[in-house]
Design a protein that fits this description.
With 494 residues, the chain is of the alpha/beta class. 38% of the residues lie in helices and 22% in strands.
Length: 494
C-alpha cells in the first residue's frame, strides 16, 4: 500500500491493518508470556492506535536466549556475507518506506515529512555500515626478533539497545546497524509510546537474510523490560538514548557486570550568532533548530545566543516565522506535529507556566493547541522566551519541546561563557561569515559536534555524541563501530 492508501485507511477506520502486537523473538512474533498488553496512542488524535505486548523479565530472558543462539551463527558469518545482507536490508527499507513512515508518524506524532526523512536516513545507515562490515581489519606491528604479532577485532557479543520515542526508527538503526556489521546480536527495547517501527524493522531484517535470533525486540516499560535487559550479565554492551536520570540508572544497573555503555542523554544546545551574521539566515536556522519535531530532539538548538546588534532584527523575523508555522496532525504534513504524549505535554507546559510565573517575557506561544481539523491531540505552540538570564531554569533545564530561550552578548568571551553555561554539551551552532571567529568559538565551546552557518549540517558519516551530562561514546561514522568490537592481541615465537 502507498502512503496515500495507508493514510486513507487510517482516516477511515482509525487504525492500520496488521500492526505487530507481540514481541519479536527468534524470528517471529510472540505474545507476552503472561499475556499482558499495553496501548499505543496516536498523539495527533490522543486516541488509541493499537495494542502491543507488555514485556516482563521472563520475556527478556527468552529474547536473550535467542540472541545467544543468533550470535553463535552471526559472528561466524563471513563479513562479505554480512555486507551483502545489510545492503539487502537497506533496499527493503526503501521498498517499504511508505509503511514505515506512516507508522512512525502515527506512533510518534511527528510530521510525515519528518518520518520519511528518518526512514531514508535509516536505509542509508545500513548501507554505510554494510560497507564497513568487511573492513574491520587488525594490524601487525613489528616486534623484532623471532616474534610475530597481530591484532584482530572481534564482536563484543550480545548488545542491548534502549530506544527513545522521538526518533524510534533512526535511533534504533544507528545502534543495530554497526552492531550487526561487527557480528554482534541484539535485543531491542523500544520506548513504550512508540513500539511499532522496531517490530516492523525486526521482521524486515529477517526477510532480508539476517538469521533468526540475531535481532530481537521486547516491548513494554523501562521499569519491567528495560531494567531486566540492562542488568543481565549476558549483555556485553548497552546503547541507551534518553534522559539523564534514566541514563544514570542504566549505568548503575550495568555496573555489577562491567557492561560496556554508550549513553546519549540530554541536551540544551546553543546557537550562537555573531554580529556579522545575516539576520535572515540566523532566524531561519534558529527556527528549524528548535521547532523541528516539535522541539523533541536531544540536539535541538534550544538556546539562541545573539550579538546585541542582531537581537531586534533576528527576534522580529523569528517571531513572525514562528507565528506562521502550521501545527497539526502529522499525516496532514504541517510544519509541526504533536507532542508525543499527554504526560510530556504537561511537562512542557509546566516549564513554560513556571517561566511565566517568574516574569519571563514570552514573546510568542506559551500555550497548548489542538489539531485545527479535529480539535483533538496533544500540541504545543511554538514558544520564544526573550532576554532570559543565564541562571534561569528555562536556560539550564532541558524542556524537550518547542520552547526557545534568547540571550544577548557583546564579546566572544561572553558568548562562549553563555554557550558553556549548562551541564550539557551535545550540539552547538555558530553563525558568522568570519572563518577565524567561527574556529575560535568552535574550539572553545564544549560540545560533541558543532555546525557553522547551518545548524543541521553534518550527516551519518560523522560521529555523534555528547560530553558532560549529555553522555559519552559516539554513534554514527566509523567511530560508531568501536562500541561493538573489541581488540585481541596475538603474539607467538617462530
Amino acid at each position: 500500500m502507498t502512503a496515500a492508501d495507508l493514510i486513507h485507511t487510517y482516516r477511515t477506520t482509525g487504525t492500520l491493518p496488521h500492526l505487530p502486537q507481540g514481541h519479536f523473538i527468534d524470528g517471529a512474533l510472540h505474545p507476552a508470556l503472561d499475556g499482558a498488553e499495553m496501548d499505543s496512542f496516536d498523539p495527533g488524535r490522543a486516541q488509541v492506535l493499537g495494542r502491543f505486548a507488555a514485556g516482563s523479565a521472563a520475556d527478556v530472558d527468552r529474547a536473550l536466549s535467542a540472541a545467544e543462539r543468533g550470535f553463535a551463527v552471526w559472528r561466524d558469518t563471513p563479513p562479505a556475507t554480512r555486507c551483502r545482507i545489510l545492503n539487502a536490508v537497506a533496499m527493503l527499507i526503501r521498498a517499504e518506506a511508505d509503511l514505515l513512515a506512516v507508522v512512525e508518524s502515527l506512533d510518534s506524532g511527528k510530521t510525515l515529512a519528518e518520518a520519511q526523512g528518518d526512514i531514508a536516513g535509516s536505509a542509508r545507515l545500513f548501507e554505510y555500515y554494510a560497507g564497513a562490515a568487511d573492513k574491520l581489519d587488525g594490524r601487525s606491528p613489528d616486534l623484532g626478533g623471532a616474534t610475530v604479532a597481530f591484532t584482530s577485532r572481534e564482536p563484543v557479543g550480545i548488545t542491548a539497545h534502549i530506544v527513545p520515542w522521538n526518533y524510534p526508527t533512526s535511533t534504533l538503526v544507528r545502534g543495530i546497524a554497526p552492531a550487526l556489521a561487527a557480528g554482534c546480536s541484539a535485543v531491542v527495547k523500544p520506548a513504550e509510546t512508540t513500539p511499532f517501527t522496531a517490530l516492523l524493522l525486526a521482521d524486515l531484517l529477517v526477510r532480508a537474510g539476517v538469521p533468526a535470533g540475531v535481532v530481537n525486540v521486547v516491548t513494554g516499560t523501562g521499569a519491567e523490560a528495560g531494567a531486566a535487559l540492562v542488568r543481565d550479565p549476558r549483555v556485553r554492551h548497552v546503547t541507551f538514548t534518553g534522559s539523564v536520570d534514566t541514563g544514570i540508572g542504566v549505568m548503575r544497573a550495568a555496573a555489577p557486570n562491567v557492561t560496556g555503555l554508550t549513553l546519549e542523554l540530554g541536551g540544551k544546545s546553543p546557537l550562537v550568532a555573531f554580529g556579522d551574521a545575516k539576520a535572515d539566515q540566523v532566524a531561519e536556522g534558529a527556527l528549524w533548530a528548535i521547532f523541528s519535531n516539535s522541539g523533541q530532539i536531544c540536539s535541538a538548538g534550544s538556546r539562541l545566543i545573539l550579538h546585541r546588534s542582531l537581537h531586534d532584527e533576528v527576534l522580529s523575523r523569528l517571531v513572525e516565522r514562528a507565528r506562521g508555522l502550521r501545527v497539526g496532525h502529522g499525516l496532514g504534513n504541517p510544519d509541526m506535529g504533536a507532542i508525543n504524549s499527554a504526560l510530556h505535554l504537561s511537562r512542557v507546559a509546566a516549564h513554560v507556566d513556571a517561566a511565566r510565573d517568574r516574569g519571563l517575557d514570552i514573546v510568542t506561544g506559551g500555550h497548548a493547541l489542538q489539531d485545527p481539523e479535529t480539535g483533538l491531540g496533544w500540541f504545543y505552540a511554538p514558544t520564544i522566551l526573550d532576554r532570559v538570564a543565564s541562571d534561569d531554569p528555562a536556560v539550564r533545564q532541558e524542556i524537550f519541546g518547542p520552547v526557545l530561550t534568547v540571550q544577548v552578548f557583546d564579546e566572544i568571551d561572553e558568548a562562549v561563557a553563555l554557550a558553556n553555561g549548562t551541564d550539557f554539551a551535545l550540539n552547538a551552532g555558530i553563525y558568522t561569515p568570519d572563518i577565524s571567529t567561527a574556529l575560535k568559538a568552535a574550539r572553545r565551546i564544549d560540545a560533541g559536534q558543532i555546525a557553522i552557518n547551518d545548524y543541521w549540517a553534518g550527516g551519518i558519516e560523522l560521529p555523534f555524541g555528547g560530553n558532560r551530562k549529555s553522555g559519552f561514546g559516539r554513534e554514527k561514522g566509523l567511530e560508531g563501530l568501536e562500541a561493538y568490537t573489541r581488540t585481541k592481541s596475538i603474539a607467538f615465537a617462530v
